[in-house]
Design a protein that fits this description.
The complex is a heterodimer of chains A (456) and B (216). Chain A is mostly helical and 456 residues long. Helix content of chain A is 72%, strand content 0%. Chain A has one domain. The longest helix of chain A has 34 residues. Chain B is an all-alpha fold. The chains are: A mainly alpha (456), B mainly alpha (216).
């Protein structure tokens, strides 16, 4: 854009040059320190809270009655719980990718989105972790998955994917929480210093762990943050690979495939970036953060989404090819059944949502149009959810034995639990927006330094 | 800007970080200890019974064999609780006026069995067979303790899975000669004069820790 006007250059840079250290800090900290609650925030939190109550109700009913309240029955014993688990874990991956990998690759545009993307990761993992526990049947014994000196005298079954999941998700949640919290410390100190009332001063003060911003603090901080980034990086790949083993180690046609780990990881990043966009676009509109989360950020995220979406498409293709090339009757049948069986409608909707419609992202006009991007992000979220539904339900409902074939229909409680976790997720997100800085203040100040450095 | 925290907060916060780790470790240790304590496992706890039956008196003083009352121990999974008739074999002649034995006589006359409280109660998902254990040389006293010294009955083993596995993983240490299985004084442990049963030396011994051996 060589002949661009002033507006064009502004929208193309990551941070407007008009911003100074103080204005950046003011702008972001004021969201948290403002006394008044925005009406939109109150309404949003109330709706989310109501849905969270629906989740609690569903879980209480589940504990009272057992997993029979869901639509699961042999041969489809996994149903919504596993669909939602994989979907939520996948969504979390974008946060870790943005915060760890893009940091190590020195991609500056991550700065203004990493904080809330990490929060999204944490909340998504929290929602995800609920489902396998609820699906256990005897959720009160979930701790049997942990290796502790139990009176049973045996270790957990380390050959079971359930245990792998436990460790993968547990490590992921711990590492993400640590990374997020360490990243927050300098900003918590800023909030401590800027708040006028006693309670926030003490609360942020405790959380800031005595951060004074001395040179020595910063030095150690940088080392710790880089180390954590390096530790979190393999998790981007490993967690969803392990989740894919839940399927790939099984012999069910449509699951037993070596392409699963990479294709699950690509799908995770795909859905994760879609969710980041779903959150970022309303967030920046509601709080006037267009200076920080610029159109170029959205553009970059759209490109990542397009790339990972193409890998996912390639995964579908490979899966189909392998099924045909295997010459295995059941494998090929599962492919045909997906495309023409009782759930064919969902399969073609999935192809539309995940492969066909996102091709619009090739066009710069679409990537720069927030409405189109927002709509596309929702479409991809839906598509990725459908993908997990197809993998879990459609593979299971017609397996090797025609005598046991059946149709899976989700019940009210399946839906209420799923929608309830969406409520929990958004409720946590609303609280996060109000209580913690959604954008990393100190990293934005670094950006100011750099953008001023460039101009001088 | 005034200080928000008192300088002592430095020490307190350091102590809290250490304390969190310490408390967590202690908490886990505490739970593991409590679950193995008699309070939970019931080891050494006397359960009330309709009649204060003394194994000490009947085994050590009267010299009655275990199998006189627990008749099915060699043939069945269940060792057997004697019917009132077994008691009355002797007590129709001995201590016929004893007030302590009144419930026994009442049970006999009304033909209503005595309701004993189980001391050794395994969960229903674990299948235990007395016959195979007795046949392989596990003495009664190995699991049930020195009943000949118990005026009232309590259990001496937790019956926890780790306790079962202790022997199933390494049976040789607890197997005695077949002749000593019903010895009331019990077999000295460890047993030096152990002569392995033909089966112990073959592969079946390794199968003892299979899940399905006890959880069919």
């Amino acid at each position: 854009m060589t002949t661009g006007t002033k507006d064009d250059t502004n929208s193309d840079s990551l941070l407007s040059r008009e911003h100074s250290f103080a204005s950046v800090t003011d702008k972001i900290a004021s969201i948290v320190l403002a006394r008044r609650l925005k009406r939109g925030w109150i309404v949003g939190l109330l709706i989310s809270f109501a849905l969270t109550m629906l989740l609690f109700l569903s879980v209480a009913w589940l504990f009272a009655k057992g997993v029979g309240i869901w639509g699961i029955a042999i041969p489809v014993a996994w149903g919504f719980a596993i669909v939602n688990f994989v979907w939520w874990v996948g969504i979390g991956h974008a946060g870790t990718l943005i915060s760890a990998i893009l940091l190590l690759l020195k991609q500056e545009w991550r700065t203004s989105i990493n904080r809330f993307a990490e929060a999204m990761t944490l909340f998504a993992v929290a929602c995800a972790a609920l489902f396998p526990l609820l699906h256990l049947g005897r959720p009160q014994f979930f701790y049997w998955m942990a290796p502790y000196p139990s009176t049973m005298g045996v270790w957990p079954q380390f050959r079971s994917p359930l245990i792998w999941d436990f460790f993968a998700v547990g490590t992921y949640a711990t590492a993400s929480l640590l990374f997020w919290y360490v990243g927050l410390i300098p900003d918590l100190a800023t909030l401590r210093d800027r708040s006028k009332r006693r309670f926030p001063q003490v609360a942020y003060g405790i959380l800031a762990m005595g951060w004074r911003g001395s040179a020595r603090h910063w030095r150690r901080y940088q080392d710790a943050y880089l180390l954590l980034a390096a530790l979190a990086t393999p998790l981007v790949v490993s967690v969803h690979s392990v989740v894919s083993f839940d399927f790939a180690t099984g012999i069910v046609p449509g699951w037993h495939s070596t392409v699963f780990p990479p294709y699950f990881v690509a799908g995770a990043i795909y859905s994760g970036f879609a969710m980041v966009l779903t959150i970022a676009i309303p967030l920046r509109a509601a709080y006037g953060l267009r200076d920080f989360i610029t159109d170029r950020h959205l553009d970059n995220m759209a490109k990542v989404m397009l790339a990972s979406g193409l890998i996912v498409a390639y995964g579908y293709l490979t899966e189909t090819f392998t099924a045909w090339y295997s010459g295995h009757e059941s494998e090929w049948f599962s492919v045909v059944n997906r495309a023409t069986g009782p759930y064919a409608f969902l399969f073609w909707l999935l192809i539309a949502c995940n492969i066909v419609i996102p091709q619009l992202l090739w066009f710069a006009n679409v990537r720069r149009n927030v409405y189109a991007l927002f709509a596309l992000s929702l479409v991809i979220n839906l598509g990725m959810w459908l993908e997990r539904f197809i993998i879990v339900v459609v593979s299971l409902h017609k397996d090797f034995l025609p005598s046991s074939w059946d149709i899976y229909v989700p019940t009210f409680w399946d839906w209420s639990t799923f929608i309830g976790t969406i409520g929990l997720f958004t409720a946590l997100m609303f609280l996060f927006i109000r209580l913690l800085p959604v954008i990393s203040i100190f990293e934005m100040r670094e950006m100011v330094e750099e953008s001023h450095g460039e101009s001088s | 800007m005034p200080q928000i925290f008192h300088p002592s907060m430095n020490t307190i916060s350091r102590a809290t970080i250490f304390g969190a780790v310490f408390i967590l470790a202690v908490l886990i240790w505490l739970m593991m200890t409590i679950v193995r304590s008699p309070y939970v496992s019931g080891v050494g706890v006397i359960r009330s019974q309709p009649v204060p039956f003394s194994h000490e008196h009947h085994v050590a003083e009267a010299g009655i064999d275990c199998r006189y009352c627990h008749t099915s121990v060699e043939q069945s999974s269940f060792a057997g609780i004697p019917p009132t008739q077994t008691c009355m074999n002797c007590h129709s002649q001995l201590w016929t006026e004893s007030p302590m034995l009144e419930p026994v006589r009442a049970s006999y006359q009304k033909d209503k069995p005595l309701v004993w409280n189980r001391v050794h109660d395994l969960p229903d998902f674990a299948y235990f067979y007395h016959n195979i254990h007795v046949e392989r040389g596990v003495a009664c006293t190995t699991c049930h303790g020195q009943l000949a010294e118990m005026p009232l009955t309590w259990k001496t083993s937790t019956l926890y899975m780790e306790w079962c596995l202790e022997c199933h993983r390494d049976p040789e240490k607890r197997i005695g000669p077949l002749a000593a299985v019903f010895a009331s004084a019990g077999v000295p442990s460890p047993i030096i004069s152990f002569e392995p049963h033909a089966d112990w030396k073959n592969a079946r011994c390794a199968l003892l820790t299979n899940c399905s051996v006890c959880h069919h």
